[in-house]
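Catalogue entry: protein

Sequence with per-residue C-alpha cells
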Amino acid sequence: MTAAVARYRGRFAPSPTGPLHLGSLFAAVGSFLEARARGGEWLVRIEDIDPPREVPGAAGNILRTLEAYSLHWDGAVLFQSRRLDAYRELVGRLRQVGLAYDCACSRSDVETTNALLGRPGSRVYPGTCRRGTARSDPPPLVRLRTAPETVEFTDRLQGRFAQSIETDVGDFVLLRRDGYAAYQLAVVADDHAQGVTDVVRGTDLLDSTPRQIYLQRLLGYPSPDYMHLPVIATPSGEKLSKQTGATALPNDRKGEIAWQVLGCLGQAPPPPLRGSAPAELWHWAIPRWRPERLAGRRSIPGSECFGCGAKM
C-alpha cells in the first residue's frame, strides 16, 4: 500500500472467533497510530466468513472493546459476510481467463500425492486437478492457477521479502467447499473496494502477502504498502492468540494496559502518563509515533511488555 499522506487509508480486520486480547489490541493500536500519525483514515473490517469458528456476539464485543479503548474508526464497518456475491464475481472473472478451476482434492489427498512425489510433509498443492476433475465428492473448491514467478516486495519494518508462489505455495484456494471466499481472495477484494492504501498487521501474515500481491496483479489492482508488526509471543515462543490461551481484555485497567501496549510498541510513554485514559495516551503517542523502532523484529516476548497483571 504506497501512498501520499492525504491518501492514507489503513484498516484493522479482526475475525469474530472470540473477544479482543492483548495481541489483537497490540495490532489494533499499531495500525491506529500509523493512520492517525499520517493524517489518514482508519477503517475497521469484520472478517466473518468462517461460520464454524465464529463465536455468537463476538463481532459486537470487538467493536465495543475498540470504542472502550478510544480506538475510533472512520466510516462504516465492513462485514465480509455481506460481500459474498462480490467475491464470487471475481472468481467468475478469473474462470473466464482460465486462471481459476475446480479442485476435488482434500488435504489428505494433497499430503498423499506429495509423499508419492518424494515430498513428505509438504503442503504445496501438486496441481492434481489443473486439467480438470470428474470427482464430485467431496464438493469441489476453487483454486487459482499460479505461474513460476517470484513475487517480491519491501515491507516497511521487515525489509525485502520474496516468495515463489508456484513452488512455495502452489495453486491456492479462492473459494472453499462451503462456498465462502478464502482469506486471500476476500482480503484482496475488500482492500480494493475500500481504497485501502496501507496495511499494518502482524508478522504472522507476512508469508501470505506475496499471494495477495500476485492476485492483485492478476485483477489489475494496485498493491498497498505493507508494514508487518512483530507479534506478541507466549513464554513458549508461540504467537499469542486464542489458540494459545489468550484471554479477553479486562474491563478495568484500560489506561494501564494501553500504557504498556505503547511501551511494547517501542514508544516509551513517560511514567506520569501511566494509567491515564487511553484517549490521552493516544493523543500523546500520535505525534511521537516511530514504528521504525520495531524494525526487523518478528516477535516480542509478552513478558517484556505486560507486567500489570493483565493476563495474556
Observations:
- The chain has nine helices and twelve strands.
